Amino acid sequence: MSPYVIRPVGEDALLIELGSVVCEETHGAVLDLDSALHAAGIAAICETAPAYTSVLVRYDPNLTSFEELRLLCEPLMSQPRTADRAGRCHVVPVCFDNSYAPDLDEIASRVGLTPEVVTRQFLEARYRVYMYGFAPGYAYMGGVPPALHQPRKPAAVRGYPVGSVLIAGPQCLISTLPMPTGWWVIGRTPLTILDRDSEEPPVFQPGDTVQFQRIDSEQFARLATK
């Protein structure tokens, strides 16, 4: 059984930490534990939130306590790993034309590559969906090539539209709301990741993989009208 830490978070949640390094192996253990918690049917659990290396478990303090729930969770840690946790693979179209990729040239300059090479390296990588956070439908993905890693901008910039493809450090995400961001915008997709008028869940789920595919502005316009 891998090392883990269970600690209280406020009066109605506990955090189960399965590691400190973000990697697919640890995240696989996170998803297995999340599945085991759901399968266990513990009535006091209100919800679970899998993240990069941990699972947050919210519970009803009127039905259980931290210590009682910890004792219920610990046996789940020793359950065998799921043999195949492969999620779905999504192909996401992205346009890298200047009007859709306002930060592409600056990223290229900062890393000492041409915009074409940056685009090609970005497209060749495989991205894993690790968690949702910050805003509805914001799926945090890992997999940005090390040569393209950049820290977040010193200050957030307003005005970026829905569908902006953002990178910061090793992370990538696709915006679902028009809000300020300090991440670098290197493209835009016409794909709807989150339909706020629908009861359907977001397109991606933790454990899924994403492959980006280049499209031009004409293809973008056609796909955006579908």
Low-confidence stretches: none
- What order do the strands of the largest sheet run in, or round the barrel if closed? 5-11-6-7-9-8-10
Mean pLDDT score: 89
Radius of gyration: 20 Å
Largest sheet: 7 strands, mixed
Order of helices and strands: EEHEEHEHHEEEEEEH
CATH superfamily of the largest domain: Cyclophilin-like
CATH T-level fold name of the largest domain: Cyclophilin
Question: Beta-strand percentage?
Answer: 25-35%
Q: Oligomeric state of the chains? A: single chain
Helical proportion? 10-25%
Globally, the shape reads elongated
Total helices: the number is 5
Class of the largest domain, according to the CATH hierarchy? Answer: Mainly Beta
Helix and strand content put the structural class at alpha+beta
The counted number of beta strands is 11
What is the end-to-end distance? Answer: 48 Å
Number of domains: 2
CATH architecture of the largest domain: Beta Barrel
What does it look like?
Pfam families: CT_C_D. Keywords: ATP-binding, Hydrolase, Nucleotide-binding. One of its GO terms (molecular function) is hydrolase activity. Residues 4-204 form the Carboxyltransferase domain. This is Allophanate hydrolase subunit 1. This protein has 226 residues and is an alpha+beta fold. The protein folds into 2 domains: 5-78, Gyrase A, domain 2 (2-Layer Sandwich); 89-224, Cyclophilin-like (Cyclophilin), CATH 2.40.100. The chain contains 5 helices and 11 strands. The chain has helices at 24-40, 66-73, 104-111, 115-124, 217-224, and strands at 5-8, 13-17, 45-50, 54-59, 89-95, 127-132, 139-142, 164-168, 171-174, 184-188, 209-215. The strands form 2 sheets. Strands 5-11-6-7-9-8-10 form a 7-stranded mixed beta sheet. It has a 4-stranded antiparallel beta sheet with strand order 1-2-4-3, covered by helices on one side. A hairpin with a 6-residue loop joins strand 6 (127-132) and strand 7. The longest helix has 17 residues, at 24-40. The protein is elongated. The mean pLDDT is 89.
